[in-house]
Design brief:
Translation Initiation Factor IF3, four-stranded mixed beta sheet, alpha/beta, 9 helices, 29% helix, 3 domains, 364 residues
Length: 364
């Protein structure tokens, strides 16, 4: 008989939350469901439980962006020889994905790992983990494509202490040149105001500095904290709002509406892209491919069966101020969004595409 249990983890201290959650999971049988309400991310705890107990568990959020978070957790059975702790982040907005995954990796012991399921190639995460933790990462693609990207990620040794003042770090000496600037801008768009990104380069990355000044004006601080032959460390601290950025404290709807005002009435609509019949894992890839083909001043009509908030966050992180977003219809089962391009874009924005020979080298 399937048992359904309600579990409220709000206002619990970290140790009590861990204890309370694990007790409920230990009492559950295969097939049981737990309805959980929490005021913080518990994804790392759920991965930890899978690792320690070798039990399959799946969870789904009612609304992944809502606070408090409400999720339904289904208990599977014991791991078989092919099972590993798994986390599916396809419903999480990009900023939260990185925060959750960095926490999970930091809390792994040596020789522990998990399987990541994503809707596109998570290569920026690989570069980030390597830069933050060094050469202690095993990264193996299990599958790529229609049913999502699956990657086995293992920690081969204990991590060094991470500087808590740094939100993220990229050692660009380990990143292919054509991927450096897109990777940095992609992640910078996700860090909170006041957060600091550390860049390690063979010398001061002045072309990157110029790009930041052009794109973010005076809303960031650039500090060279170390300069030596073959090694330069730069701290980039995000502060305030800039053209195309969101003001702190705006809701998602306010952010989307603010972006939508940039869509001109005379923008040429090149096509209609209806993704309702596509598997979820293919939708974002198709949409970003359509966006990458747009010229300045063009747009396409995107049709979906639900409000595409995660897609909006992904565009905001990856395309920055050049994309335009305007809701044209919000009905049950049919959402229409006009997505346009206001500045010359980069075809590398297509999710899941690797760099091509036409991608310019980042001039570090």
């Amino acid at each position: 008989m399937v048992t359904e249990t309600e579990l409220d983890l709000r206002a619990l201290a970290e140790d009590r939350l861990h204890e309370h959650l694990f007790e409920a999971l230990n009492d559950a049988a295969a097939g049981d469901k737990l309805g959980i309400v929490t005021d913080r991310d518990i994804d790392p705890e759920l991965v930890r439980y899978q690792i320690e107990q070798e039990w399959v568990i799946d969870w789904e959020y009612a609304d992944p962006d809502a606070v408090p978070r409400e999720l339904t957790l289904t208990v599977g059975g014991r791991f078989d020889d092919e099972d590993s702790a798994t986390i599916d982040v396809r419903d999480l907005k990009p900023q939260r994905r990185h925060e959750v995954l960095l926490t999970i990796f930091e809390e792994l012991d040596a020789d522990e790992g998990f399987v990541l399921v994503n809707d596109h190639d998570p290569k920026p995460l690989y570069h980030e983990l390597r830069s933050m933790h060094g050469d202690i990462i095993e990264w193996e693609y299990v599958s790529r494509g229609d049913d999502g990207w699956r990657v086995e990620i293992y920690k081969t040794a204990d991590s060094e202490t991470v500087d808590e003042a740094i939100v993220t770090r990229y050692d660009v000496r380990e990143i292919p040149k054509q991927e450096r600037h897109p990777t940095i801008h992609h992640r910078y768009g996700m860090i909170p105001d006041g957060g600091t990104m550390e860049i390690i380069a063979p010398h001061e990355p002045r072309p990157l500095h110029q790009e930041f000044r052009q794109q973010y004006a005076d809303s960031f601080e650039w500090e060279v904290v170390e300069s030596a032959p073959g090694r330069c460390r730069v701290h980039i601290t995000k502060g305030g709002s800039h053209d195309g950025a969101k003001d702190v404290g705006q809701s998602d709807d306010m952010q989307e509406n603010a972006t939508s005002t940039t869509v001109a009435e005379d923008r040429e609509i090149t096509r209609e892209l209806d993704v309702r019949d596509l598997p979820p894992a293919q939708r974002h890839e198709q949409i970003f491919e359509a966006y990458a083909k747009l010229d300045t001043g063009e747009a396409f009509m995107f049709v979906n069966d639900h409000a595409p908030k995660p897609l909006y966050h992904q565009f905001d992180a990856e395309a920055g101020s050049e994309f335009c977003w305007e809701y044209r219809q919000k009905d049950p089962g049919e959402f229409r969004v006009l997505i346009g391009k206001s500045e010359a874009g980069d075809s590398s924005l297509a999710v899941g595409q690797g760099a091509t020979d036409e991608t310019p080298d980042a001039p570090f």
